[in-house]
Fold this protein.
Amino acid sequence: MPDLEQLLRYWALGQWQANLLVLMHLLGAMVLGLILGYERAYHGRAAGMRTYALVCMASCAVTVLVAYPQQWFGGQLSGLAPLFTDPTRVIQGVVTGIGFLCAGVIMREGMNISGLTTAASLWAAAALGIVVGMGFYFAAITLTLLCAALMMWGAKLEARLPSHPAIAVTLRGTPERRFQQAELAEFAERLGYRFAPGSLSIEHSAGHEEWRFVCTARRNYKDQTLSRFASRLGELPGVAEYRITHARN
Protein backbone atom coordinates (compact mmCIF):
# COMPACT_ATOMS: atom_id res chain seq x y z
CA MET A 1 0.00 0.00 0.00
CA PRO A 2 1.23 3.55 -0.73
CA ASP A 3 2.40 5.53 2.30
CA LEU A 4 1.19 9.02 3.24
CA GLU A 5 4.06 10.74 1.43
CA GLN A 6 3.15 9.05 -1.83
CA LEU A 7 -0.52 10.03 -1.48
CA LEU A 8 0.38 13.65 -0.71
CA ARG A 9 2.20 13.90 -4.01
CA TYR A 10 -1.21 14.04 -5.71
CA TRP A 11 -1.82 17.37 -3.92
CA ALA A 12 1.61 18.91 -4.39
CA LEU A 13 2.01 22.34 -6.02
CA GLY A 14 3.34 20.87 -9.25
CA GLN A 15 0.30 18.61 -9.52
CA TRP A 16 -2.07 21.52 -9.02
CA GLN A 17 -0.31 23.55 -11.69
CA ALA A 18 -0.46 20.68 -14.16
CA ASN A 19 -4.15 20.06 -13.44
CA LEU A 20 -4.92 23.76 -13.91
CA LEU A 21 -3.18 23.81 -17.30
CA VAL A 22 -5.03 20.67 -18.38
CA LEU A 23 -8.31 22.25 -17.28
CA MET A 24 -7.60 25.35 -19.36
CA HIS A 25 -6.92 23.17 -22.39
CA LEU A 26 -10.18 21.28 -21.86
CA LEU A 27 -12.23 24.45 -21.47
CA GLY A 28 -10.74 25.86 -24.66
CA ALA A 29 -11.43 22.61 -26.54
CA MET A 30 -15.01 22.59 -25.25
CA VAL A 31 -15.68 26.15 -26.46
CA LEU A 32 -14.20 25.47 -29.90
CA GLY A 33 -16.13 22.20 -30.17
CA LEU A 34 -19.38 23.98 -29.31
CA ILE A 35 -18.72 26.59 -31.98
CA LEU A 36 -18.00 23.92 -34.58
CA GLY A 37 -21.05 21.85 -33.61
CA TYR A 38 -23.50 24.75 -33.65
CA GLU A 39 -23.84 24.62 -37.44
CA ARG A 40 -24.84 20.96 -37.31
CA ALA A 41 -27.29 21.60 -34.46
CA TYR A 42 -28.78 24.57 -36.33
CA HIS A 43 -29.58 22.31 -39.30
CA GLY A 44 -31.07 19.58 -37.09
CA ARG A 45 -28.35 16.97 -37.54
CA ALA A 46 -28.02 14.02 -35.18
CA ALA A 47 -24.56 15.10 -34.05
CA GLY A 48 -24.93 18.54 -32.46
CA MET A 49 -23.06 20.84 -30.12
CA ARG A 50 -22.71 18.34 -27.28
CA THR A 51 -21.29 15.64 -29.56
CA TYR A 52 -18.70 17.96 -31.04
CA ALA A 53 -17.72 19.37 -27.65
CA LEU A 54 -17.30 15.86 -26.21
CA VAL A 55 -15.20 14.68 -29.16
CA CYS A 56 -13.03 17.78 -29.05
CA MET A 57 -12.50 17.65 -25.27
CA ALA A 58 -11.78 13.92 -25.23
CA SER A 59 -9.22 14.25 -28.01
CA CYS A 60 -7.64 17.17 -26.20
CA ALA A 61 -7.56 15.32 -22.88
CA VAL A 62 -5.73 12.24 -24.13
CA THR A 63 -3.29 14.45 -26.05
CA VAL A 64 -2.45 17.00 -23.38
CA LEU A 65 -1.70 14.28 -20.83
CA VAL A 66 1.32 13.29 -22.91
CA ALA A 67 2.83 16.72 -22.22
CA TYR A 68 3.12 16.08 -18.47
CA PRO A 69 4.73 12.66 -18.00
CA GLN A 70 6.54 13.89 -14.90
CA GLN A 71 3.16 14.42 -13.23
CA TRP A 72 1.69 11.03 -14.03
CA PHE A 73 0.46 8.95 -11.07
CA GLY A 74 0.97 11.70 -8.55
CA GLY A 75 4.42 12.75 -9.69
CA GLN A 76 5.60 9.22 -10.44
CA LEU A 77 5.15 7.03 -7.37
CA SER A 78 8.13 5.04 -8.45
CA GLY A 79 10.27 8.16 -8.43
CA LEU A 80 11.45 7.49 -11.97
CA ALA A 81 10.28 9.71 -14.80
CA PRO A 82 9.81 8.04 -18.18
CA LEU A 83 12.72 8.53 -20.50
CA PHE A 84 10.60 9.10 -23.58
CA THR A 85 6.94 9.60 -24.51
CA ASP A 86 5.61 9.50 -28.05
CA PRO A 87 2.50 11.66 -28.57
CA THR A 88 2.05 10.36 -32.11
CA ARG A 89 0.88 7.02 -30.71
CA VAL A 90 -1.88 8.78 -28.78
CA ILE A 91 -2.85 10.80 -31.85
CA GLN A 92 -2.98 7.62 -33.92
CA GLY A 93 -5.31 6.02 -31.39
CA VAL A 94 -7.61 9.05 -31.34
CA VAL A 95 -7.84 9.23 -35.13
CA THR A 96 -8.53 5.50 -35.38
CA GLY A 97 -11.15 5.53 -32.62
CA ILE A 98 -13.05 8.50 -33.99
CA GLY A 99 -13.53 6.59 -37.24
CA PHE A 100 -16.06 4.28 -35.55
CA LEU A 101 -18.12 7.26 -34.39
CA CYS A 102 -17.98 8.85 -37.85
CA ALA A 103 -19.15 5.62 -39.48
CA GLY A 104 -22.22 5.65 -37.24
CA VAL A 105 -23.55 8.94 -38.65
CA ILE A 106 -23.27 7.89 -42.32
CA MET A 107 -26.57 6.51 -43.62
CA ARG A 108 -27.63 5.17 -46.99
CA GLU A 109 -31.17 5.16 -48.29
CA GLY A 110 -31.49 3.85 -51.81
CA MET A 111 -29.15 5.91 -54.00
CA ASN A 112 -28.86 8.69 -51.44
CA ILE A 113 -25.99 8.76 -48.95
CA SER A 114 -26.21 11.25 -46.10
CA GLY A 115 -24.07 12.13 -43.10
CA LEU A 116 -20.75 12.46 -44.91
CA THR A 117 -20.35 16.13 -43.98
CA THR A 118 -21.18 15.40 -40.35
CA ALA A 119 -18.70 12.51 -40.28
CA ALA A 120 -15.96 14.66 -41.81
CA SER A 121 -16.63 17.51 -39.39
CA LEU A 122 -16.54 15.11 -36.42
CA TRP A 123 -13.15 13.94 -37.61
CA ALA A 124 -12.14 17.62 -37.82
CA ALA A 125 -13.36 18.12 -34.24
CA ALA A 126 -11.05 15.31 -33.11
CA ALA A 127 -8.16 16.93 -34.97
CA LEU A 128 -9.10 20.23 -33.35
CA GLY A 129 -8.86 18.70 -29.89
CA ILE A 130 -5.45 17.25 -30.74
CA VAL A 131 -4.20 20.64 -31.95
CA VAL A 132 -5.40 22.31 -28.74
CA GLY A 133 -3.84 19.54 -26.66
CA MET A 134 -0.50 20.05 -28.36
CA GLY A 135 -0.62 23.76 -27.49
CA PHE A 136 -1.18 25.31 -30.92
CA TYR A 137 -3.92 27.68 -29.79
CA PHE A 138 -3.89 30.12 -32.70
CA ALA A 139 -3.93 27.24 -35.18
CA ALA A 140 -6.85 25.67 -33.29
CA ILE A 141 -8.90 28.88 -33.39
CA THR A 142 -8.14 29.31 -37.09
CA LEU A 143 -9.08 25.70 -37.82
CA THR A 144 -12.38 26.17 -35.98
CA LEU A 145 -13.26 29.28 -37.98
CA LEU A 146 -12.28 27.67 -41.28
CA CYS A 147 -14.32 24.52 -40.60
CA ALA A 148 -17.35 26.49 -39.40
CA ALA A 149 -17.22 28.81 -42.43
CA LEU A 150 -16.93 25.86 -44.81
CA MET A 151 -19.87 24.08 -43.20
CA MET A 152 -22.08 27.19 -43.21
CA TRP A 153 -21.28 28.67 -46.60
CA GLY A 154 -19.66 25.85 -48.55
CA ALA A 155 -23.00 24.54 -49.82
CA LYS A 156 -24.00 28.01 -51.05
CA LEU A 157 -20.71 28.39 -52.89
CA GLU A 158 -21.09 24.92 -54.38
CA ALA A 159 -24.59 25.76 -55.62
CA ARG A 160 -23.31 28.83 -57.47
CA LEU A 161 -20.53 26.99 -59.29
CA PRO A 162 -21.14 25.09 -62.56
CA SER A 163 -22.06 21.50 -61.82
CA HIS A 164 -24.08 18.51 -62.99
CA PRO A 165 -26.31 17.47 -60.05
CA ALA A 166 -27.69 13.93 -60.10
CA ILE A 167 -31.23 12.80 -59.35
CA ALA A 168 -32.52 9.33 -58.50
CA VAL A 169 -35.69 8.38 -60.35
CA THR A 170 -38.10 5.54 -59.52
CA LEU A 171 -40.89 4.85 -62.01
CA ARG A 172 -43.70 2.36 -61.41
CA GLY A 173 -45.76 1.56 -64.48
CA THR A 174 -49.34 0.49 -64.97
CA PRO A 175 -49.96 -3.29 -65.21
CA GLU A 176 -49.65 -3.34 -69.01
CA ARG A 177 -46.78 -0.83 -69.25
CA ARG A 178 -43.30 -2.04 -70.23
CA PHE A 179 -40.67 0.66 -70.23
CA GLN A 180 -37.72 0.70 -72.64
CA GLN A 181 -34.27 2.01 -71.78
CA ALA A 182 -33.95 3.93 -75.05
CA GLU A 183 -37.34 5.54 -74.44
CA LEU A 184 -36.38 6.73 -70.94
CA ALA A 185 -32.97 7.94 -72.12
CA GLU A 186 -34.59 9.97 -74.92
CA PHE A 187 -37.16 11.41 -72.49
CA ALA A 188 -34.43 12.47 -70.06
CA GLU A 189 -32.41 13.99 -72.89
CA ARG A 190 -35.33 16.18 -73.93
CA LEU A 191 -35.53 17.57 -70.39
CA GLY A 192 -31.82 18.32 -70.22
CA TYR A 193 -30.65 15.24 -68.30
CA ARG A 194 -28.28 12.40 -69.11
CA PHE A 195 -29.49 8.87 -68.44
CA ALA A 196 -26.90 6.81 -66.53
CA PRO A 197 -27.33 3.22 -67.77
CA GLY A 198 -24.92 1.83 -65.19
CA SER A 199 -27.33 2.83 -62.41
CA LEU A 200 -30.35 1.03 -63.87
CA SER A 201 -32.22 -1.62 -61.89
CA ILE A 202 -35.55 -3.22 -62.89
CA GLU A 203 -38.01 -4.98 -60.62
CA HIS A 204 -41.27 -6.73 -61.50
CA SER A 205 -43.81 -7.17 -58.73
CA ALA A 206 -47.56 -7.86 -58.74
CA GLY A 207 -47.76 -7.23 -62.48
CA HIS A 208 -46.01 -3.86 -62.29
CA GLU A 209 -42.58 -2.93 -63.59
CA GLU A 210 -40.49 -0.65 -61.41
CA TRP A 211 -37.44 1.07 -62.91
CA ARG A 212 -34.80 2.80 -60.82
CA PHE A 213 -32.05 4.86 -62.41
CA VAL A 214 -29.95 8.00 -62.04
CA CYS A 215 -29.91 11.04 -64.31
CA THR A 216 -27.38 13.86 -64.27
CA ALA A 217 -28.44 17.36 -65.24
CA ARG A 218 -26.61 18.94 -68.14
CA ARG A 219 -26.29 22.09 -66.07
CA ASN A 220 -27.13 23.30 -62.58
CA TYR A 221 -30.86 24.01 -62.46
CA LYS A 222 -30.54 25.00 -58.75
CA ASP A 223 -33.95 24.74 -57.01
CA GLN A 224 -35.57 23.35 -60.16
CA THR A 225 -33.47 20.20 -60.43
CA LEU A 226 -36.22 17.89 -59.16
CA SER A 227 -39.36 19.81 -60.12
CA ARG A 228 -38.15 20.28 -63.71
CA PHE A 229 -38.09 16.52 -64.20
CA ALA A 230 -41.23 15.76 -62.18
CA SER A 231 -43.38 18.38 -63.91
CA ARG A 232 -42.86 16.69 -67.30
CA LEU A 233 -43.48 13.08 -66.24
CA GLY A 234 -47.10 13.47 -67.39
CA GLU A 235 -45.76 13.34 -70.95
CA LEU A 236 -44.51 9.79 -70.35
CA PRO A 237 -47.44 7.37 -70.81
CA GLY A 238 -48.16 4.52 -68.43
CA VAL A 239 -46.56 5.95 -65.28
CA ALA A 240 -48.66 4.95 -62.24
CA GLU A 241 -46.31 6.19 -59.52
CA TYR A 242 -42.96 7.93 -59.35
CA ARG A 243 -40.39 9.12 -56.88
CA ILE A 244 -37.57 11.59 -57.53
CA THR A 245 -34.85 12.49 -55.02
CA HIS A 246 -31.38 13.94 -55.04
CA ALA A 247 -28.79 11.24 -55.69
CA ARG A 248 -26.09 12.42 -53.28
CA ASN A 249 -23.06 10.24 -52.80
